[in-house]
Amino acid sequence: MEKELAIIGGGPAGLTAGIYAARADLKTVLFEVGMPGGLAASTEIIENYPGFTEGVGGPELSMNMEGQARRFGLEIQYAGVEGIKKEKGNFLVLTDEEEYRVRAIILAAGARPRMLQIKGEKEFHGRGVSYCATCDGAFFREKTLAVIGGGDSAIEEALFLTKFAEKVTIVHRRGELRATKYLQQKAMDNPKIDFAWHSVPVEIKGEDLVREIILKDVRSESTKGLLVDGVFVYVGHSPSTELVKGLVELDGQGYIVTDEEMRTSTPGLFAAGDVRKKLLRQVVTAVADGAIAAVSAEKYIEGQK
Ligand code: NAP
């Protein structure tokens, strides 16, 4: 199948690129393997996206972006992309069902939650270990939880989990949180939240379900058990760049290096959103990337004609 532009990823960056590309009349297809909205869709409430005095639900914002893109005629395929090949001025985008020949690609595949890589984590995934408070929080009414991490995600989700849980212990490897001061203060003020400072989890234990997490004090190296019913892991993200390994320049952490126009080191291949090297990974910067990437891709395609 022939198209002008393929957008890979239907989060805020990809959907915004789709809105701009569709309005520019580019023959575009967007591929999304899960639900639209990416990580934003699994955030209960987004409080710092401008224009919403009381914040906006992540799922609601995502559905609105998707609806807006469709209104301008964007074709969205709910399919996983399995490979990208470069081919004389074009790219081939391979899904499990079809092969698309396109002039340009915007990779907006985002980032995935990082795992702890400790004993018991895989075994209890779905049985007390979770990476999504919005998805699983309601299963833990009146329960005791641990949230691992000290960044914005960990603190925001710990706050959300206090809606259900009786107690939430934030486990952080340092004595100071990384999260923004506003979130830090909200967590400190919340009577259901306490902290295990200078601690890292080393094992998750249980029988059918999680029952205990073993924490190591990084200063003394001593370990102790914490009885919990659930463990929510928020220790950062890894960029989803498997499709472009070897095709584009990556930074030391595996994020795609672009210029201000979202161009990667390969002409015709653009990147937008959390997948690229940048200072701030939020919805507001993802949508800006998406808009710029679409305009750049349009210029590139026009220049090829
Ligand atoms: P992050 O900012 O990279 O924070 C990851 C946290 O996990 C850090 O506190 C880190 O500790 C800790 N950590 C990393 N590896 C660990 C390990 N192996 N064991 C134990 N702890 C570990 O990631 P994030 O919170 O997912 O946020 C990602 C991006 O999204 C950030 O730019 C963030 O600002 C943004 N975000 C923004 C909002 C918002 O604005 N409301 C909400 C969510 C996310 P150290 O602090 O010691 O490094």
Helix and strand arrangement:
Elements (H helix, E strand, L loop, with lengths): L4 E4 L3 H12 L4 E4 L6 H4 L3 E2 L9 E2 H14 L3 E3 L3 E7 L2 E6 L3 E4 L1 E4 L3 E3 L15 E2 L2 H4 L7 E5 L3 H10 L5 E5 L9 H9 L3 E4 L2 E8 L3 E8 L5 E5 L2 E4 L3 E3 L29 E3 L11 H22 L1
Parallel strand pairs: 1-2, 1-9, 2-5, 9-20, 11-18, 12-13, 12-18, 13-14
Antiparallel strand pairs: 3-4, 6-7, 7-8, 10-19, 15-16, 16-17
Helix pairs in contact: 1-3, 1-7, 5-6
What would you say this structure looks like, in words?
The chain is an alpha/beta fold and 305 residues long. It has two domains: 5-113 and 237-304, 3-Layer(bba) Sandwich (FAD/NAD(P)-binding domain); 129-233, FAD/NAD(P)-binding domain (3-Layer(bba) Sandwich), CATH 3.50.50.60. The protein is built from seven helices and 20 strands. The strands form six sheets. A five-stranded parallel β-sheet has the order 5-2-1-9-20, with helices on one face. It has a five-stranded parallel β-sheet with strand order 11-18-12-13-14. The longest helix has 22 residues, at 283-304. The mean pLDDT is 96. NADP nicotinamide-adenine-dinucleotide phosphate binds at residues 48, 116, 148-154, 156, 173-174, 178, 200, 234-237, 281-282. NADP nicotinamide-adenine-dinucleotide phosphate binds next to helix 5.
